[in-house]
């Protein structure tokens, strides 16, 4: 995929996710910081994911890694949802989910960009 469609898609995903959280989550003192984090993580993560889309969709490789990642990510997001404030904060859970996904696609990009060892 060319750069412009990737960046446009990243901007669209970041805008939709951020606007959805801003609309549905009641504002708090840390809302702006959380929304900025969500926009950045989802925008850049989408661009990186689209750059390495064939690798992400590959059927080759161990399936347990994906299962372990999904399980740990789910547990972490539920912990963030319930553990940050006295009442559940959906924005924090969405940010946690985005950070986990961003870490995953960044790892793929890092590994793909490494030169093979001799």
Percent range of helical residues: over 70%
List how many beta strands DSSP finds.
0
Overall mean pLDDT score?
79
The parts where pLDDT drops under 50 for at least 5 residues are: none
- State Rg: 16 Å
What shape does the CA trace take?
flat
The arrangement of helices and strands along the chain is HHHHH
So how many helices? 5
Provide the β-strand percentage band.
under 5%
Give structural notes.
With 118 residues, the chain is mainly alpha-helical. The chain is built from 5 helices and no strands. α2 runs parallel beside α5 (90-113) and α4 runs antiparallel to α5. The model has no long low-confidence stretch (mean pLDDT 79).
Write the layout of secondary structure elements.
Elements: H1 3-24, H2 31-51, H3 53-56, H4 63-83, H5 90-113
Helix pairs in contact: 1-2, 2-5, 4-5
Task: Describe this structure in a few short sentences.
By secondary structure, this protein is an all-alpha fold. The chain has five helices and no strands.
Record keyword descriptors for this entry.
118 residues; mainly alpha; flat
